[in-house]
């Protein structure tokens, strides 16, 4: 049960607000909320709806049938059964997959109401650029918070906000495979509309004998936060990050201009959109991405239980696996490794353009080491004729973000020079209830090639992107808050101390990350802020931890205001 009078979101916003080095202005420049005198009248909303072809959608929280006064037992059961799957959420214009930023779930008592809370108030089901342009004009005129929403895959809470009007990009599904030639790339490309999800792109590319870099979760929207934030993939050690694939953007900026951005035209905007974070510089209408020739893909899975061996043996196995990562990923392989206090799992290790015999040869030193340690493991390997076939078979469905998250990029120098220190960090996390996940890849400049983007430079030196997580308890609010404190104050410092000058993947990190400007954007931050000022001069675009977000604060009521420094008081 959550404490009386305190919503999950209310507590969260309080945590966020107190970390900011300023206080909220009470001036009219604060964004309007429902109930304020500045909030548009019903007739004004109706007129706006007519101007956008009747595509305005009022938010009804997904969990509504599970709560009074709208409780419906049959509908509620169906919602509960599907709540942990992305499909339930991305089909809506408001539901967010990270419960920390939500307002109504089906698991707290049905006698309690289902508030809109931190969900967007309205969304526009976009079908043409004019809908976005009119929405920008409306939010600016009435001083309403503006949100870009696609699927709701969002650990950082950027695609939701109290009292907000969102543009919902999910139903833009056009895909065009084309030939591309410029000074930097010649080959096949795919133009993907903003709502195209990973599996859509994989299937379209497969029909053309191609493969496209996309996330491990099939429902992630490729042109949204994935590519704009960097985007790791099972194909990344072969081709680079998602952001490294981008050839061109179509984008509506904060002034309502429809722009083409590539390396020759609006090159600064092109640079910022590829790795500098989503929902910050403009609303992407489409992106054109490199498409690569398909072919053989091999994969393997391995798991063993920690309960059948000693603790020391378990961590010897972990250290042995990490010691071999460089030689594996440098051959074009990606490996996903999940560690808990009861298990070790690789699921999967993916080798694009690598025959199975070669992949198994690369992995054999690890298996030999496990055998010497007396570990009994379950092992499966297979060769496929395409990436889509391997993806469907070996990359398991991923649940929504039901956890508290942290993340850090581990340089290969740590594995080479301080592998024991990494093992101790892993031990401290999983021995205290955390989950330690490594996405082992090589996205160095040698792999990424001729690119021009705002990807955090620490990616180029990394051997792994580490994701830390703790379990989520739907009915224990105090546990959730304590787990978030543990993430920020205990787990993350134990990892960061190994490479304090590295950084974090901005899409999969702690939303309370200290000095997020340096951790998420590094040396690119100042240049990114200049790009934002140029293309969003009215400061319409905001997202927690996004570039420029430190200039705003959000109170426990959801009110968003510009900050006033103490020097100005």
UniProtKB/TrEMBL annotation:
Coiled coil: none annotated. The keyword Transferase does not apply. Residues 115-294 form the FAD-binding PCMH-type domain. Residues 1-26 form the signal peptide. SUPFAM superfamilies: FAD-binding/transporter-associated domain-like. Keywords: Oxidoreductase, Signal. GO terms for molecular function: FAD binding; oxidoreductase activity. PANTHER family: FAD BINDING DOMAIN PROTEIN (AFU_ORTHOLOGUE AFUA_6G12070)-RELATED, GULONOLACTONE OXIDASE. Belongs to the oxygen-dependent FAD-linked oxidoreductase family. This is FAD binding domain protein.
């Amino acid at each position: 049960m959550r404490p009386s009078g305190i919503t999950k979101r209310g507590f969260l916003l309080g945590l966020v607000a107190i970390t900011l080095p300023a206080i909220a202005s009470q001036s009219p420049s604060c964004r309007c909320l429902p109930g304020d005198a500045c909030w548009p009248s019903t007739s004004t909303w109706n007129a706006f709806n007519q101007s956008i072809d009747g595509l305005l959608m009022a938010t009804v929280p997904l969990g509504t049938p599970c709560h009074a006064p709208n409780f419906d037992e049959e509908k509620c059961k169906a919602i509960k059964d599907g709540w942990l799957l992305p499909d339930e959420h991305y089909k809506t214009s408001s539901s967010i997959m990270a419960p920390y930023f939500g307002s109504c779930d089906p698991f707290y008592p049905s006698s309690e109401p289902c508030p809109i809370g931190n969900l967007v108030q309205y969304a526009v089901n976009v079908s043409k650029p004019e809908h976005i342009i009119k929405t920008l004009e409306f939010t600016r005129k009435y001083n309403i918070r503006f949100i870009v929403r696609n699927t709701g895959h969002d650990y950082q809470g950027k695609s939701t906000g109290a009292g907000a009007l969102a543009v919902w990009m999910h139903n833009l599904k056009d895909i065009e495979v084309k030939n591309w030639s410029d000074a930097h790339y010649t080959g096949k490309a795919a133009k993907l509309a903003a709502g195209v999800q990973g599996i859509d792109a994989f299937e379209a590319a497969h029909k053309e004998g191609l493969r496209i870099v996309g996330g491990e979760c099939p429902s992630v929207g490729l042109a949204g936060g994935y590519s704009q934030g960097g985007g790791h993939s099972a194909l990344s050690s072969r081709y680079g990050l998602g952001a490294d694939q981008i050839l061109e953007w179509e984008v509506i900026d904060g002034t309502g201009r429809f722009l083409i951005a590539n390396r020759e035209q609006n090159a600064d905007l092109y640079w910022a959109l590829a790795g500098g974070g989503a929902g910050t510089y403009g609303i992407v209408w489409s992106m054109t991405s490199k498409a690569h020739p398909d072919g053989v893909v091999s994969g393997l899975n391995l798991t063993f239980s920690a309960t059948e061996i000693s603790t020391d043996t378990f961590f010897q196995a972990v250290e042995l696996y990490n010691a071999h990562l460089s030689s594996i990923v440098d051959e074009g392989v990606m490996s996903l490794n999940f560690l808990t206090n009861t298990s070790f799992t690789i699921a999967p290790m993916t080798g694009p353009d690598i025959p199975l015999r070669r992949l198994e040869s690369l992995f054999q030193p690890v298996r030999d080491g496990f055998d010497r340690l007396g570990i009994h493991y379950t092992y499966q390997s297979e060769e496929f004729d395409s990436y889509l076939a391997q993806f469907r078979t070996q990359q398991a469905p991923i649940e929504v973000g039901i956890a508290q998250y942290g993340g850090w990029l581990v340089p290969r120098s740590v594995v080479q020079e301080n592998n024991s220190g990494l093992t101790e960090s892993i031990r401290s996390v999983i021995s205290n209830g955390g989950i330690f996940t490594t996405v082992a890849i090589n996205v160095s400049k040698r792999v990424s090639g001729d690119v021009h983007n705002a990807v955090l430079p620490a990616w180029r030196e990394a051997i792994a992107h580490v994701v830390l997580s703790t379990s989520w308890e739907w009915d224990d609010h105090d546990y959730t808050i304590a787990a978030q404190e543990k993430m920020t104050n205990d787990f993350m410092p134990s990892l960061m101390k190994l490479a304090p000058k590295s950084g974090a993947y901005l899409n999969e990190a702690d939303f309370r990350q200290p000095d997020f400007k340096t951790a998420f954007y590094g040396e690119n931050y100042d240049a990114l802020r200049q790009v934002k000022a140029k293309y969003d001069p009215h400061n319409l675009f905001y997202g927690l931890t996004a570039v420029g977000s430190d200039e705003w604060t959000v109170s426990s009521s959801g009110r968003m205001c510009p900050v006033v420094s103490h020097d100005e008081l």
